[in-house]
Amino acid sequence: METKAPSNLASSQNPKSSITKSVSNDRDFLNHLEAYLAKRDGVDKLLKISRYATKIILASSLLPETLPLNRRLKSFESSVGVSRKAFRLGKFVQDLNALRNSCFDSKEDVILSIIAYGGEGLYMFVEQFVWLVKSGLIDAKHSRNLQKISAWAEFIGYIGSISLKIRDLKRINEDESRLLSTIEISISRGLKYDEEAKKIQKLKEKRLMKRLSIVQDLADGLMALADIRDGKGRLSGPLLMSSAGLLSALISAHKNWLSC
User: Fold this and answer.
1) Which residues, 6+ apart, have CB-to-CB distance to 24 below 8 Å?
2) Is the dihedral of CA 162, 166, 168, 169 positive or negative?
């Protein structure tokens, strides 16, 4: 992504409005798609999209219960749900490494990181056993307890993750404010500020992705809360949960696509 600095002084008096970007994407689509599908997260999110799109169709009662297609969609949704759990084998190691390699600026960062990565890591670890139950290797009597542990760990992990990302957003805003001040000084002195403009553009992109990540965590956290409550109570309706799942899947697929 390439950012061009404003060419005239009149338009540059407002640094926020004067910074523009030109997007150029020369990467071959099929090569990009191949790289995306080579990642297990890429395939997993495509499965997640198909699963929750199917759940929305079923929850909205668009198809009569007696229709054969309805039963096939239910079977498809259930099968995809079990298949997705297989993609979580060993994934808890990512959280262990993320926690181990994190740089902490304060005690709050340490605590929130332990909550975020520890919760998600435990969730991923327990999900392996949930998959084994679904696959029939472990007795189904353990299913309820494992799913409860998994849901609580996931929910706690999202609390820590959202808190960390909110703190990151504050740091991004502070960095942007400092850069804008630098640009204003450069304008007053007739100096160039191309590098600062590029940095601000990158911060804006980073802030957008961070906000999308928070929305995704909120959607996933809402579904985890519904699992804890066994789908009972407010904000646990099938259509709402399916919509939250699809929103989360689309955001995650978008992030993974950009990271390839």
Assistant:
1) 1, 2
2) positive
pLDDT in tens, 142-185: 999 999 999 999 999 999 999 999 999 999 999 999 999 998 98
In terms of phi and psi (left: phi > 0; alpha: psi -120 to 50; beta: otherwise), the region of 89 is beta
For 179-233, write each residue's pLDDT tens digit: 999 989 888 888 888 888 899 999 999 999 999 999 999 999 999 999 999 888 8
3-state helix, strand, coil in the chain (%, to 5): 75, 0, 20
Q: Give CA 254 to chain center in angstroms.
A: 9
Q: How far apart are CA 21 and CA 197, in angstroms?
A: 10
Could you tell me the pTM of the whole model? 0.82
Query: 98 and 116 in contact (C-beta within 8 Å)?
Result: no
Smallest CA-to-CA distance from 20 within 32, 8, 33 is with 8
- By the 8 A CB rule, do 49 and 33 touch? no
- In terms of phi and psi (left: phi > 0; alpha: psi -120 to 50; beta: otherwise), the region of 61 is left
Pair 221, 155: CB distance under 8 Å: yes
Residue 139: DSSP 8-state: -
